[in-house]
Specification:
Elements (H helix, E strand, L loop, with lengths): L18 H16 L2 H16 L7 H24 L1 H25 L2 H26 L7 H21 L1 H10 L7 H20 L4 H9 L5 E3 L2 E3 L7 H31 L4 H17 L1 H10 L2 H21 L5 H29 L5 H30 L1 H11 L3 H10 L13 H5 L7
Antiparallel strand pairs: 1-2
Helix pairs in contact: 1-5, 1-6, 1-8, 2-3, 2-5, 2-6, 2-8, 3-4, 3-5, 3-15, 4-5, 4-8, 5-6, 5-15, 6-11, 6-12, 6-14, 7-8, 10-11, 10-13, 10-14, 10-15, 10-16, 10-17, 11-14, 12-13, 12-14, 13-14, 13-16, 13-17, 15-16
Length: 441
Amino acid sequence: MSSGTAVPVTADVADHPAQRRILTVLVVAQILSGTALAAGITIGALLAEEMLGSTGLAGVPSALFLVGGAIGAVVIGRACQRWGRRPGLVLGHGVGALGSLGVVWATVLDSVPVLFPALLLYGAGGATIMLSRYAGADLAAPARRARAVSTVLVATALGAIAGPQLADVTGDLAQAWDIPRLAGPFLLAFAAFGSAAVFLALFLRPDPLLLSRAADAAGGPTTTAGGVRPDARVSDRRGVFIGVAVMVLGQLVMIAIMTMTPVHMADHGHSTRTAGLVIGLHLGAMYLTSPLSGVLADRVGRLFTATLSALTLCAAGLAASLVPPHSTLALSLALILLGVGWNLGFVSGTALITDALPAATRASAQGLMDLGVLAAGATGGMASGVMTALYGYDLLALSGGVLVLALLPLLALAFVLPAPVTADGSGGDAKAATEPGTGAA
């Protein structure tokens, strides 16, 4: 590998002394807030169908979640930029709690005008959950940033898995309080977002972003995807571009194939329960494989992991298009591959962006990056239905698998192009970047 393929990291570089505490606090907060995701994913469409009286409008909540998430990603990112991670994340979780309570109130009033803005606020809370992963990497040593991100993502998955198991309990509680049963999961979301906000306000100290800025203020050399950035206050644009491209294209392809898989299965005689099982396995692969992605991105390299992501997503698209549509096992394996490929790209892309951005401008830029990811997901979701209707699921999956290969030339260029000039005025040292004991990130 050339000097542009890995990040030279000194072996004895350690995490900031506060990193372990920060990561522990974020894990607890993510488990709490992760339980809030189930309401929007599983209940939002049913709630809209009941209140709007039309199955055709049942997709409105998903659209509002995405719009609210896009707005929230930018606003919360800027709040973190201005005040620090703790105030920004507390604000975002508080907005999510307010939105969840608004949905409950809308069901009590049977008011669509109250429901729609409440769903926007709930979506902003969901975006905050994903933005939290960046806080896990603020104080991590460069050689452990991806693993810090993966730890936060796994915690989110644990909460998201626990949430649906509480749907019946919260529904019973809502009925006991004379609230429509479908609003029960949003009561849980209110409690989840609210408790996460309080927990972060009390315990996310010291602020990881502010500490990271203090370290960068010295202007010392900083590791990036392309080598060593001579001034920690300067962005590595190449690293940012590659990281965004990996996350955006991976999100677009994953959402497109995932969205239409249940429809494809229903068309071939699978039950809703079976389709739910396949999607559940896919979601598990999306998040529970985060530790593997973190280890690969830190120990082998960000670009290697991103390349592996593209190849895995391609294999998933090919498998989904070619396997017998009546085989639950075959479709499950294809969707598991899809989840693994997405995670490899999401973790490596996040690490690339964090490596490349100085702390002084990192938070607001990260919010804009997530806006791009959300927009890609919305595009994939909308385009998938049209393409499936016109050409069928097989061609949709095949096209997604081929499309993601567009990343390979970009990643190949990053492998072969020379690294930026290092702090001592020389080019990056390929041997130092990849030799055992130097810690390739």
